[in-house]
Amino acid sequence: MAEKINQQVHPFAQVNKQPRSDEESGTVTSDQALKRKKRIKLAIYVAAFAVFQTIVILVFALTVMRVKTPKIRLGTDVTFQIFKTGTQASPSFDLSFTTQVGVKNSNFGSYKFDSTIATFMYEGVTVGQVTIPKGKAGLRSTKKVTVTVNVNSNALQSTTNLGSELGAGVLTLNSQAKLSGKVELMFVMKKKKSAEMNCTMTIEVKMVDRANQPVYPSVPADRQFRGSDENIEDSGPLLPDHVLRRKKRIKLAIYISAFVVFEIMIILVFALVVMKARTLKVMLGTNVTFQNFETGTQARPSFDLSFTAQVQVKNTNFGPYKFDSTNATFMYQGVTVGQVTIPKHTAGMRSTKKVTVTVNVNSNALPSTTKLGSELGAGVLTLNSHAKFKEKVVFVFLMKKKKSAEMNCTMTVDSSTKAVKSMIC
């Protein structure tokens, strides 16, 4: 049978072919440049993880550790104990009512404020004052302080619009107060924060006809407080201070625990994805060049082949895989027909190392009982290849983990066309 030396053989379409450009670039690029690229990749992954952690900490700092200004508002539930008003011709008023001042703290820490004075005014003139005692608004809660307010028109001048307002059946009062205190975060960090109250309350005089009557004042469109939104109304019986403090500490502990659990989940994902050592994949490449191709007949079966192929070590780990030299064995029906040494190399992280080898196989060791004759008569030759790699995957240049990889491939050659018909690994 006529033979052709240095014959290039191409596999059929069903075998996935590796791009030639990858092979050429892999040949041209030096080992030192490849190592540098892999280190750059690893540095990018580590930097990405560090940036992600920084973002998480930044979000924590901007949400949990950020100090927000508390809000102080006057409640909308008002109970009048005294309600005296004059007429349009002789305008005056003398009121005494009970209401709630709500200090809403939206921080993840308590807000301790000093006592202050709330001033009630009519057209800029002070008509009454009330003292708001010092207190403490727990984390993400509203402190409600009940106060009794006494206001009258004694300090008003005759030039005010009080008469016309009372003639229209309304009375408008403004209230101002400024709280000074500190927000305490994580029981350690303290930051000064002040809160101001500027509320306008319009009372319908006709609605109040006797003392001790609860009144819901009508509020103009430009009001500066919202009782229902700020949750100032009394929602139940007051709890002792030590119970409230315990509840707030439990809340804070829950938030901190949630953050710690979230961080643990991130580290766990990092460990399971980046730091997990995966088994490598070793396979025989599909591009085969035959230097020698000699086969016998069905009556006198034999073969003597010499070809060049690539052994591909695919490393999907986030670290290089350094393997020692090993032998790849080629067999026909379980009988060794050839061997080749695969030299030691390093497969970079998340890349494929391609090692070119020259293989010589022949049928000298085959017994006569094999099915070689029937196979050659059918125009095919089936060879099996096996190799085992043992070495370590290196993570972040420090941690090493042993991993073994095996190659088990079946190559079917068409003896008539001297081409690889199929490659299964």
TrEMBL record:
UniProt keyword list: Membrane, Transmembrane, Transmembrane helix
Domain Late embryogenesis abundant protein LEA-2 subgroup: 101-200
Coiled-coil stretches: none
Domain of life from the UniProt record: Eukaryota
InterPro entries: Lea14-like_2, LEA_2
Keyword Nucleus: no
Transmembrane parts of this sequence: 42-64, 252-275
Keyword Transmembrane helix attributed: yes
Location of region: Disordered: 1-30
Listed name of the protein: Late embryogenesis abundant protein
Organism: Quercus suber (Cork oak)
